[in-house]
UniProtKB/TrEMBL annotation:
Binding site for Fe cation: 137, 179, 183
Molecular function terms from GO: metal ion binding; peptide deformylase activity
Protein's name according to its UniProt entry: Peptide deformylase
Known catalytic reactions: N-terminal N-formyl-L-methionyl-[peptide] + H2O = N-terminal L-methionyl-[peptide] + formate
Enzyme Commission identifier(s): 3.5.1.88
BP GO annotations: translation
Length: 218
């Protein structure tokens, strides 16, 4: 396939290339790919803590069709509207194991991609270096808390076309991969905090005003 055709496929949401170690290369054509997803999508309101869809494991993606492609497009549009760096399907009320990301790592390198049915690798002890930076969540708007997570992550899953993929991240991007995978198994970052810290995060949320549209909990 000619280079021009390969680039057009990538912009349209095609298969990402992989490096010599088998990890997807999600740092190329980032602006074009994200813009193409977003242009086809429609932003949806964000579900917030207390909505039942956020507190249970989502269903595996088993059909990789036009409906899933539209969901991915809508997720990119919703993520941009909310000024986020990652978004799981249940954060817009959809019970499917898929997340999207548009996230920099600690070196400022931008990563853009889609992961269906993600599973985090168990890290060997020598790779478990914890980073206790602040963490926030679109589903817990205006709240932040320090949370220790490994500064390296490997996620295995599928892209939106069903192809097996492996994504790795460091620093802030590693935190994003772990955070979004947690969402799809029914965990918010505040569930990993102490009771006192969780209470404080919920207080911050109650006192703040989201900058994006949310779904009110009945």
């Amino acid at each position: 396939m000619a280079q021009q055709d390969t680039e057009q496929q990538a912009v349209a949401g095609g298969v990402l290339p992989v490096d010599d170690e088998g990890f997807v290369i999600d740092t190329e054509e980032t602006e074009e790919r994200e813009a193409a997803y977003r242009a086809r999508g429609t932003a949806r309101p964000i579900t917030v803590v207390g909505n039942p869809v956020l507190h249970r494991e989502t269903k595996d993606v088993t059909v990789f069709d036009a409906e899933l492609a539209q969901l991915v497009d809508d997720m990119f549009a919703s993520q941009r509207a909310a000024e986020g760096v990652g978004l799981a399907a249940n954060q817009i009320g959809v019970d499917k194991k898929v997340f999207v990301y548009d996230c920099p790592d600690d070196e400022g390198v931008r990563h853009v991609g889609v992961v269906c049915n993600p599973v985090l690798d168990e890290l060997p002890s020598e790779r478990r270096v914890l980073d206790d930076s602040n963490e926030g969540c679109l589903s817990v708007p205006t709240a932040y808390a320090e949370l220790a997570r490994p500064d390296y992550a490997v996620v295995r899953g599928q892209d939106e076309k069903g192809n097996p993929i492996v994504v790795r991240g460091t620093g802030y991007f590693a935190r994003c991969l772990q955070h979004e995978t947690d969402h799809l198994y029914g965990y918010l970052y505040i569930d990993r905090l102490s009771k006192r810290e969780r209470k404080d995060a919920l207080r911050q949320m109650a006192e703040g005003t989201p900058r994006y549209e949310t779904v009110p909990n009945d």
